[in-house]
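#struct-queue
[09:14] JT: dropping the first one here, sequence first, then the structure tokens:
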Amino acid sequence: MAHLGVILATRRQRSAADPLVWAAHLSVVEGEWSDDIQFETDRARFVGRGRTVRAAAAVGDGWPLSNTSGPMLDPVFSLRRRLTLPPGATARIAYWTMAATTRDGVLALADKHRDPTAFDRAAALAWTQAQMQLRHLGVTADEAHLFQRLASHILYCDPALRPVGDLIKAGLRKVSTLWAHGISGDRPIVLVLVASDDDLRLVRQLLRAHQYWRMKRLAVDLVILNARVASYVQDLQIALDTLARINQPTSEGAHDPAQGSVFVLRTDLIAPEVRDLLQAAARAVLYGDRGTLAEQLDRARDPTPARTFPRRAPGRRRSLRAASAAAAGVLQ
């Protein structure tokens, strides 16, 4: 809709059960700008022959946008505005992308956000809402940033927090291997291995991370694997079960498995192929005896051959790997 400066898009429903979604893209300028708004909806024209998105012809060569619309196999949202900036002047451009279930609904959203002050208003409301959510969960801003860093490993399958390739290959099995323990395998898995009461600090932090991800609609299955040797396993297992239970969300939809769940398992009570598959399938594997979540993420970001893992305080029980090996002989 050129007269409104808005690009509208929808996808044909494949069946009557498919939800209908309308999307809109617009830009709002604070400052002097010319009336001509260029737009492009065809990615091939925007990128150009033999080019890539990083070096698109429409950007690098300054090609004018085609101002065409219609059915597209490979669509793109692209808007171009021309601004006039006198010396010392400033201008701001806000780009909005929004969605609704109806055409009228998405047009109403676009009209609402054409106000230049809409961005400041939305940013203030988002900041206020975020502070209230963090206070409700008992999460600090620094912790939230930490949970977001871990979420990037979950979303993009970063190998830095995964086992080495040989362990992944050895653990590959049918996902149905996990079904007996209630784990569907449909959602990303974060695996944490613990063997000592000192590891409960990391477990508590990951339980808060799980609640934070649920609030952000990121569905993750958190699997806590208790690898303490059999003679000591019960006390730690009770503590883990208690933590998992008291950290279950109580809000609406808290018991919806589609939002991710928490599982507490014991290495001596699950089959070796289950342990192997959990390690192979997990997007991130964390260890209770390798420091805090921040330390493990920092090491993953800057892996150096000379790095060493934090040592236990004197008198601490055997390391997680030793305890796990004693219980199962596999977690190496």
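[09:21] JT: and here's the second one, same format:
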Amino acid sequence: MSKPKVLLYAPREEPKPIIDALRNAGLDVIEGDRRWQTPGGEHREPFLAAARDAVALMGTYSRFTPLDRPLLEACQRLRVVAKYTAGVDDIDTDAASDLGIMVCHAPTEANCFGVAETTIAMILALLKRVRERDSEIRAGKWREPHLTSVFLGMRYSDNRPGITIGIVGLGRIGTRVANLLAPWRVRLIAYDPLIEPARFLLAGVQSVDYHTLLRESDVVTFHTPLTKETRGMMGARELAMMKPTAVVINAARGGLIDETALAHALKSGALRAAAIDAFVEEPLPASSPLRQVGDKVLLSPHSASFNEDAQLGPGIEWAARSVIAALAGNVPDNVFNREVIPRWKEKFGGASVTG
């Protein structure tokens, strides 16, 4: 009898101890073709052929061969998809739930907290004019008056309030951003309709509706997954609600923001600046309007979580643990589509495929 198959559908240099742990659990680990995750080719059929008899899929982001409903329906034995990353927008999670398939993600501290730290760096780079001051010195200039920066915190000595920072999405990353900003004495507000009121209180953040957040914030920073509800949540209408002195930070997912509308707002002076780490199309095309607004936008190559001692390593470990647990008939602790759990238990709970 053949061993249950785990397909590394979007592989990323999985450490040998991780592969050994999966094989020691009685699983047949198959590495997928890395070309499946590149543009410019027809990869769906070979991907589907490899995935069809898998009981588990593991991998990082799968932009060019997403796990959509037809693909998931074709995988009749599939119990679990385990991501190395926090984001799951390359998976049709509604379809997975309908089919009784658990989707596990990896919001590890190395990943989430790395994004939060990069967010703080972006806020400071924009408001303290770090890049522009460096460029001025290199151009032979010195202390140009137009390069004044923004003071973030409350100033008791002259009775000035701090700036308002609006956090969209108060999950692990958004909460960590709030924690890091607490000593700065800024005003923190947040919008997240899925978070219970106590979370706002514990984070020291005022809960507001989305439009209030846009109108009142000096900084709007996005930390929400890309779903059908959040896709395009910042377009021309939302940008028009913001202060012309405000800045936008997106270290979450590219589809949250209308990039053309954002570029227009920056170019026209309707918005001060933006820092973007995630884009609708990646790598960012040469034709992107965001490349046409100069230093009003700080661009980053979707690497907010890249740290020397972390990157995807902890997420790969989480994914492997999730697969081993799920294939032993247990529910892992990092299920994204938690609404699937009753159905999954009905189909698979308590039943091991590894003997």
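[09:30] RK: nice, looked through the second one.
[09:31] RK: Residues 169 and 194 are 9 Å apart (CA to CA).
[09:31] JT: good to know. The chain has two domains: 5-108+310-347, 113-299.
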